[in-house]
Amino acid sequence: MFLSFINISPRNCRKIWEKESSVMARSSARIIKNPFMSLTPSPRSLTQLFSVSPPLTSLFSSKKTSPSPSLSIFILSFLFSFTFLGISIFRFFPSSQDSIHCSIISPTTSPISSHPLPSSYSQIILTSLLAGINSDNKIQPRIGGTAMVPLPVHLVSGNLSEEETEFWKQPDSNGYRPCLDSTIGYRKRSAKISKEKNRFLVVVAAGGLNQQKNQIIDAVVIARILEAALVLPVLQVNMIWEDESEFPDIFDVEHFKKTLRADVRVVSSLPSSHLVAKQTIVTQIPYGVSPFWIRAKFFKQLNQEGVLVLKGLDSKLSKNLPSDLQKLRCKVAFHALRFSKPILQVGNQLARRMWIEGPYISLHLRLEKDVWVRTGCRTGLGPKYDQIITQIQKTQPQYLTGRVNMSYSQRRLSGLCPLNAFEIARLLKALGAPQSGRFYIAGGEAFGGSKALEPLAAVFPNLVRKEMLARDGELSPFLNSSSALSAIDYIVSFNSDIFIPSHGGNMGRALQGHRAYMGHRKSIRPNKRTMLPFFEDSSISDEEFSSIIRSLHNKSMKPEPRKKQRDNDVIAYPVPECMCRHGSGIF
Length: 587
Known about the structure:
about 575 residues; alpha/beta; Rossmann fold
């Protein structure tokens, strides 16, 4: 673990930069190798880093050779260097939490931000930097332990306005780090539950990708409550997006099983002894049920029948659970539910292509046709487009999930409508986003096509989508899977310097919590209910408007403890159940 404490002098920093810039000349920021790596270097990586070169191997060979003067000098030089390295390691061991004193930007490029990285990133960056110096000139993604580690935030400096400097500034983590230690009682029960072979839980997960993820998380927790083995969740065919993806298409099955093996036994299918001609499917479950309710309702039935099939779990399990179960939720969300290797490979490649050009903001824009239909909101594109949405709502009223007893204006001012491109542009400008900033646009195809994005592109022209980043054929395997494309958006957004969703939604909440869990990377949640009245007030000057908007969003940029309310999920707010100041650290 001593890699994290090796000091890098300014002279060596320049050498490292000159070496790397010859490989990635187009980069406007310092390239850091191995972006997805373990917070604790693996023995294998240490072995690779300090691999013995052929000349050095010969020193330990049993073959006798007469030592030459040059060889003796080489040996003495090696011993002296090794001793000096050891002294340096012990010298810097106590100051492991110090911030990095090595700029990771090109000395010749125009910098963008001067805010230093939070101290929690110091070990990550140093380890990654040192591990990549002698690599094969390729940026290879890695997964750290069981959790995906994001690319480091950019360290850049320059002639910025006060607003721009504040915009790029990352929040202070306040010392919070992941801690998923379970109680002794939980661990004792795990010995039996993880070997369960008589009771099996089958769960059918519906909806979009992140809605399905929420149900899978709750499925694991319910299996634990019922002391049952979990059959690999079934992903229901999505009728809106016509997506027929199955669990192995989206997630890494073996990783899912391995990560949860101490908590719940996960099997790929029901054993033949439990296959019956007719199975009872439970669909009527109230919202916010407790673990006690789950056991009282299903444990006896599960014991008798051996199989329980649940469907429609979305938001049915209470958000307020005992500590061990809250930690299990985080373990599933941030560790076990890793995307499949093909999705990870493409997602990582696109993320690196965005990241290598400098800092970027990910905007999750909910401008798809189905979003406007479901919310009952206006598109902001004019009467022609609004009429199309209204007609669909009349012919297919089952898709309308917005509050039907409210007018459009009431829905909008209540924060129930997605921000359109014009509103997003005003928000970004008020927050201090530079017009030259680079924006990754996550989300499906906008209703209205390029016209829908014109108000945003007019102010912030550097808009990039995955289709623009991808090379020929990279996205082809996923074109018929909205879940896979959403997963790719998730990966690129996860690695961004700043993430901003235009609407709450499952993906926005999932990324907010995941980014907080992996280092409190900046996420800005638009406070629509409070800020939209100021959008309508023409008497407010631009300067005053910007000041109001920034003040309304200061709180959302800092580690925010979860409030025990019905809709506050530990997945979106991992502090304090899954993160602590004095815990055992990263899982």
